[in-house]
Specification:
This protein is an alpha+beta fold and 529 residues long. The chain has a domain at 441-528. It is 60% helix and 6% strand. The chain contains 21 helices and nine strands. The chain has helices at 2-11, 19-31, 33-50, 60-84, 89-109, 112-132, 134-137, 142-160, 168-177, 188-213, 225-248, 261-293, 302-305, 312-321, 335-354, 357-364, 384-393, 397-407, 419-437, 469-474, 518-522, and strands at residues 377-378, 413-414, 417-418, 450-453, 461-466, 481-486, 491-495, 505-507, 526-528. The strands form three sheets. Strands 4-5-6-7 form a four-stranded antiparallel sheet, with no helix packed on it. Strands 1-2-3 form a three-stranded mixed sheet. A hairpin with a 4-residue loop joins strand 6 (481-486) and strand 7 (491-495). The longest helix has 33 residues, at 261-293.
């Protein structure tokens, strides 16, 4: 418990103040055995990774550490089963707190499928409580607010990584619990809570639009045109309102004379949150475009959707290019490309801020009694989802290449997100795109059609499935493209059934032993053989 109180409790929240980890979890450990055992197991896993020890390493001390974590995990599960039986309000809270700890524990272990299973179970319990006792679960009660906030964060993280963890209706139910302030943000956490509510509504709208497109994992019924248009307009207005409230308050702050570690984290959070606002705008525009493609909305309204979330610099670039006829080489960028260009520029500023000598020095001396944390892991949001989205959704190859290269600058983990896994997926996605571009008339790969199955262990398999829904409508037995990456071997194993022959890439220098990186594909240093 000493490690948790001195290290884990400060590491997991990341740049934002998260009362679930710093207040609620330690308090619940005092009176609830299930929470205590789950926390001890979490701390043991974090300690192993902070010391740079890999799972399964052989030594008497390390084996004992593994056994300790397993014993605590088992005891937590046993106590939780006994506690859930009485079906009381407090038991539900204990179950949710323990479940959240289990989710992060499994993510740290690299057992993502187990973590997602815990998350789905927790969201099921949370939804039951929200529908059964909405007044008690409302955010006025601090404990309930902290529980709801941590599950909202984990849900958004998982959904951004293409994982389905709940029914679409729960997105709306959760967003209703994150009530935004009236006129101004009094803290970074208030601004983040308001932005998370918008993200959840975008994800709900995306699920409805995907259902209309017949994407995998979605319902069969498609949304009506009127309701989709009203929802899109409401989200656009809220994005614009969020930006105005941010600029009135937290967006303009004076630089303090002395930068303590806490102040540096606050500055980082203030830089990060507007980037997530831009990402929300991009995802909203993509969702609205998908709805228009499927007949749910008029294309004529698409150009106005970006007005509510473009930053001042982005707006000036968009406006300067609007309404003019230009050659192809001078053609105006689409709003998504413009937004991602700004996003990547801001991420590079953030990286320089995080890697500055003063920040590195303070990080080294933050804990004088023990070695530096080698886990490079937090439970909260960071820049990995932003870079991943840019590498997958942006139309500009240079921006996508910049995003992927930034993955390699420093290994990092943020909840379910692992930068090493994210870059593997992003590069494979670009390689598939490049293969398809060789064949005229081939279907453009849509990221929404790609299913990602994360590894169930550090030595497990990462599986990508690309499903052609048009072919499936014609023939339910139509094959899917399947790609398997072996985490223990660090390479792609096999490729599933394809309608086109597999392309083999060779470098002009004669190197045929590895696949091309995204940068090499973009720079045309590889050719098809």
């Amino acid at each position: 418990m000493e490690w948790f109180m001195s290290r884990t409790i400060f590491k997991l929240p990341g740049a934002f103040e998260t009362s679930f980890w710093t207040v609620l979890l330690p308090q619940a450990c005092v009176s609830e055995p299930a929470v205590l055992h789950a926390t001890l197991s979490l701390a043991s896993i974090h300690k192993r990774q902070a010391l740079g020890l890999k799972p399964g390493a052989v030594s008497a001390g390390l084996v004992e550490s593994d056994l300790f974590a397993l014993r605590q995990y088992t005891r937590a599960m046993t106590d939780l089963r006994h506690r859930i039986g009485d079906d009381s309000r407090r038991s539900a809270d204990v179950a949710l707190i323990t479940c959240a700890a289990f989710v992060q524990l499994e993510y740290l272990r690299g057992c993502y499928q187990a973590g997602l299973t815990h998350l789905r179970h927790g969201l099921t319990v949370l939804e039951m409580n929200l529908r059964r006792e909405p007044k008690r679960m409302a955010s006025q009660h601090l404990v309930n607010e902290w529980i709801i906030r941590i599950f909202c964060t984990m849900t958004i993280q998982a959904k951004l990584f293409g994982q389905d963890v709940c029914r679409p209706e729960l997105f709306l139910l959760l967003s209703e619990q994150l009530k935004p302030p009236d006129r101004v943000f009094r803290s970074v956490n208030e601004a983040r809570r308001s932005l998370e509510a918008i993200f959840l509504r975008i994800m709900y709208q995306n699920s409805r639009s995907a259902a209309g497109a017949g994407y995998p994992g979605t319902a069969d019924s498609s949304p009506s045109s009127d309701s989709s248009g009203a929802c899109a307009d409401s989200i656009s207005n809220d994005l614009e309102l969020w930006l105005q409230m941010w600029q009135r308050g937290l967006g303009t702050c004076e630089k303090p004379a002395v930068l303590s570690p806490a102040i540096r984290l606050d500055r980082f959070a203030r830089k990060l949150l507007p980037i997530y606002h831009s990402l929300a705008g991009v995802l909203h525009l993509r969702t609205a475009t998908l709805g228009a493609v499927n007949g749910n909305q008029d294309f004529s309204s698409m150009s106005s959707l970006s007005d509510g979330w473009c930053s001042a610099g982005e707006k000036s670039r968009c406006d300067s290019n609007s309404g003019t006829e230009t050659p192809d080489s001078m053609r105006a960028e689409d709003p998504i490309t413009t937004a991602f260009r700004s996003i990547i520029n801001d991420c590079e500023v953030l990286f320089k801020m995080a890697m500055s000598p003063t920040v590195q020095a303070s990080r080294i001396h933050q804990y004088d009694d023990i070695v530096a944390d080698a886990s490079q892991a937090i439970a909260d949001i960071g820049w990995i989802p932003i870079l991943y989205s840019a590498s997958i959704y942006c139309h500009d190859p240079i921006i996508r290449s910049r995003a992927i290269e930034m993955f390699r600058l420093i290994p990092h983990r943020e909840g379910i997100w692992d930068s090493s896994i994210a870059v593997i997926i992003a590069e494979k996605f670009l390689e598939i795109e490049h293969e398809r571009s060789k064949f005229p008339g081939s279907i453009v790969l849509d990221p929404a059609r790609m299913q990602i199955e994360l590894p169930d262990s550090p030595s497990g398999q990462l599986v990508l499935r690309c499903i052609d829904q048009e072919a499936r409508r014609r023939d339910p037995r139509a094959p899917e493209e399947k790609y398997i990456y072996a985490m223990d071997l660090n390479r792609w194993l096999e490729r599933g059934s394809l309608s086109r022959p597999h392309l083999h890439f060779t470098k002009e220098t004669g190197d045929t032993n590895r696949s091309p990186t995204s940068s090499e594909l973009f720079c045309h240093r590889w050719t098809q053989s």
